Structures are given as C-alpha cells and as structure tokens.
Amino acid sequence: MKERINIKVIGIGGMGINFVNFMIVSRVRNVEYITIDTDSKNSNMSRAEQKIFLDTGVPKCGRDLAERVAFQCERQFHNLLKGTNILFLISGIGGATGSGITPVILEIAKKLRIFTISIIARPFYLEGFEILKIANAGMKKIEKNTNSLIVIPNEKLYNHIDRKEPLEMAYKQVNILIKEGIEGIVNILTEVGFMNIDFLDIKSVLNNSKDVIIRVGEGTGDKAVDNIIEQLMKNNLFEGKLENAKKILISFTAGHSVSLSDIGIITEKISSIIKDKNPNLIWGVIFNPTYDGIEKIKTVIISSI
Predict the structure, then answer these.
(1) Considering only Cβ atoms within 10 Å of each terminal Cβ, which end of the chain, N or C, has fewer?
(2) Which pTM does this prediction carry?
C-alpha cells in the first residue's frame, strides 16, 4: 500500500467549476473537489462536495473586491486546506473571481507549505485591453506563490479546432488534457505499479517549473505504440514546448502484459526530440486490470523547464 496522499482540486470561477464538474463526471478518484465563486448561479451548478459562494454584496464585483472578500475568509480557507499535500487550482484569469481569489488561496497554501499546481487560462486578445491588464496583474501574483504553473492561452484554441466547431468542443479538449494530466499525477501517487514514482519525483519535475505542458497518447493492439507516438508529437494547447523541456515525467498505464520494448520505444522517441541531451527524465508504469487482454497503453507526459 502506498502512503496516503491528500490531494485537493479547487475550481475557481466559471471555468474552474466547469472543469471540476467534468472531473467528477469522468470519475477521477482519490481527489477531494472544491469550488469557489462570487456568482451564486455558477456556484449552485457545482457538483463538488464543497462549494463556496463568496458573497461580495454586488451582482458583478471587481477584482479588488473579490480579493478583499477572499482575505476576509482566510481562516475558513486555512481550515479547508490544512493537511493537504498537493493542491491543484484551476481558473480563468482576467475576470474578478479568477484574478482576485486564486492568488489569495495560493498565498494561504504557501503558508501551509502545500505543494501547489496552478492551471490558468489566459484570455483571448479580443477580450480587450482592460481584461488583459487584469489578467497580467493576477498572473504576477500567481507566479509568486505557486510551485508550478501551467498556462493555457485561449488564443491557441484557434489552431487546434475546426473554425466551424462550437467553442464548447474546444474547451472540452482542454478539459480532457488537464483531466488526464491531473489523473496521471493522482494515479502515480495512489496506485501500485512497476517502477513506482513518488511525491519527491513529482516535486523534482514540477517544483519551480515554467512552461509546463501535458501531452496524452493512447493506443490498443499492434498499432498501440505508433498511435501513441503520433498523438504525443502533435502541437499542444499550452505555452511551453516539449522540445525545450529539461524535466520530464512519463506515466504509462497498461495491462500486466505490457512489454519493456514498447515502453522503451515510446520513451526513446520522446527523448529524441528533447534538445537537452541530459534531461531529468522519470518514468513509471501503473497496472490497470481493465487493460489486460486488449493490449492497451496510455501515456501521459508532464514536462517543464
């Protein structure tokens, strides 16, 4: 049995709540879900075990007011986060809730020495100067207090979807990628496998990291490895680039019959496109009995510089 790790996922604002709902519907286990919003309608839509509505007293508050109200609830947030080992925070930035509340939660988590991974969506350029200005101010505070920062520039969505496809479908792709990344880390820390990765390994890749990206590939049968490599080599939705990585975590999920050769081929292919020829590369395999017999392999890469 692995040591019990307390993992929380906090979704802040509309984007954060939508993502937490997606995680819950996707049945990602061994995680405690929390949502925070200044909009009561958004908060009521949350499926989280704990949903916190911060009443600012006005229908649409500004960033400064959201931040002030969040600080007034510091004791509540302190008690909520106490005992947490890893905290994932997901929010958009540019609005009052994400830009105002996220830095406050991170500041409290830092005082409690919680390892934090912030996943932040930057606004579209077309949202205007004021929104971008708020986003940049919030980002500076987030960078100061988080251990690891994963940035999703909304502008990149244009390059990854059919222009005629609904925007909702684009965000679903983002949700899937983030979900796979978080689930990969959660499974690494809570499931038994081969070449186990522990909490210190996670920290060695993600602590004080920049340009963090997540890539996911999966395949079944004879073409599994080829399909996985093809998926992993595609452009990603994050700010960073895989080829610039200096720290790489590779998590394989497979049946008990998975061959060392398949693992080796995928790992070598990933290593071949990395510019740094001596990166900090950590990998491990998690066994999933439901993959037995169908020769399925799932590969999740989390890399940073």
Answers:
(1) N
(2) 0.89
